[in-house]
Amino acid sequence: MDFLPGKTFALIKEDLLCEYKTIEEPVYSASPDSTEPAIMHNHNGYEMLLLLGGEVNFYIGEYGRRLTPGQLICINPYDFHMCEMIDVNEYDRIVVNISEPLMNSLSTDKTDLTDCFVRNGRFNVIQLSEDAVESFRQYSFGLIDALSSDEYGSDIMAETYARQILVLANRQSSEGHAASRKEMSIMPELVSETIRYIDRHLQEEFSIQMLADHLHHNSSYVSRCFKQFAGISLQEFIINKKISLAQRYLRDQVPPCDVCFMVGFRNYSNFSRTFSKYSGVSPKQYQRLQAPDVTLPGK
Question: Do 49 and 93 meet the contact criterion of CB atoms below 8 Å apart?
Answer without folding.
Answer: yes
